[in-house]
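In response to reviewer comment 3 from the previous cycle, which asked for concrete evidence that the modeling workflow produces usable outputs, we include below a single protein chain processed end to end. The sequence was submitted unchanged, and the resulting structure tokens are shown without manual editing.
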Amino acid sequence: MKGRKKSKKLKIFITVTAILCLAALFVCALIVQYDKYGVKLLPSVPSWFGYICLAFVIFLPAVIILLALTACFGLDKKKLVTFDYLGVDFENREKEKLKSVDPDLNANYALPAAYPAPLGTAEKTEDGEEAKGNGSRFYMLTEIDKEYENKPSPEYDGETGLQGVCEEFRNFAAGRLKLYYDIEDIRRFIGGLAVTKLIILQGMSGTGKTSLAYAFGEFLDNKTVIVPIQPMWKERTDLVGYYNEFTKRFNETTLLYKMYEANCNDEIYITVLDEMNIARVEYYFAEFLSLLEIPNPDGRNLDVVADKWENDPKLLQKNGKLRLPTNMWFVGTANNDDSTFSISDKVYDRAMVLNLDKKAVPFEAKSCKGMKLSAVRLEELFARAQREYAISDRNIRRLKCLDEYMIKTFHITFGNRIMKHIRSYVPVIVGCGGSELEGLDDILSRKVFRKLESKNPVYVKQMADGVCGYLDELFGEDKLPLCKEAIRLIEQNI
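The workflow returned the following structure tokens.
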């Protein structure tokens, strides 16, 4: 019965439309005759009035057709605005537009396969009508709130020291993942975690830069987040996502998801910025660099949204900001070739640099056991090592003499930040099983002698022998091989 009524209305609508169109064409033909044959149908009316009539008779049928369509089929105003009757889905078109920009970039904004569609999207019911979600603009983050409402805390390891952590990690990487690293590189990686939240792994392709960070996440039973950096990235929204005014939802990234999750527990989180210098680090990571310099961790708040909604995630309801988690470390991998940008001193000074220039020799792992280590426990191990293995007064005096020599010779000084890093780094290297001079040699080569690359290479070459001789005189012959190697490398590149 309902189908017959619709069919009858459709016939009436088609008939009315056809009559109106024929009438409009007839009137248009009469008016056009004036210009073509000079026959003036209305002598007392100006010629321009004919064109107004022409426009009116074209526009009037369109209005009448729209009114007839509304009367026959009962169109919804909301559907007319969104053009649902024309079969255009602008929401899906917006998603396709994002995909067309860059497939890899879009992968960072896509929801994990394990998650259902975001709340607030329209779903079809059995009756064919749309069922709306709860309107939350943060689906992934609100799911974390639900997950951690009654989730118990795991049991963490509380007995192993720093040296044990390094040895267990090295054996785990070799035994489980077939990734082999020198114990010195493992110590430097763990020592870097004690200094700053940003570590840069440099070296030739294939030496295991990304694999080292990945293996550490597997060792801690908390998978490492790998974020492939894209060449067009210029701002922090490329990392954490943005609010889409059209869809009224926030495009959440995996990094934002992990940052929020890290604020809800005490796990150790490792985030890899893969190929970090394929775009300018000072652009897309600028806000992170500034926030990480704030001494008080509670003041490191990242702007996510400018306002707040009642159904926003719990950690964003106060002011739309998310605290940078204290239990998350960023590990950037960098290659130096024609496709990348050079990393500025601003980034190098705030980061710890680890060079992986060679592959380690495979060995037989003693054990393959992982470890459940909390961030609080790791920080306690760092603090204990810094108390027990503080730099000796003798080496402090040596550093002071070296600083005066570098100022006089190259106008390079250690600075407060570098001295702070040295005092944090060297004791942890000792706690991991290394020596004090080994730690000094490593951090001085990365933090101080690296700055010679920006100086006049001819002058550096002239002074190379004198600097190497002074290092042998001050610290002992060949006690700082990495520092001397950095100088000789600059000398050879001239």
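The first strand starts at residue 123 and ends at 124. We consider this sufficient to address the reviewer's concern, and the full set will be provided in the supplementary archive.
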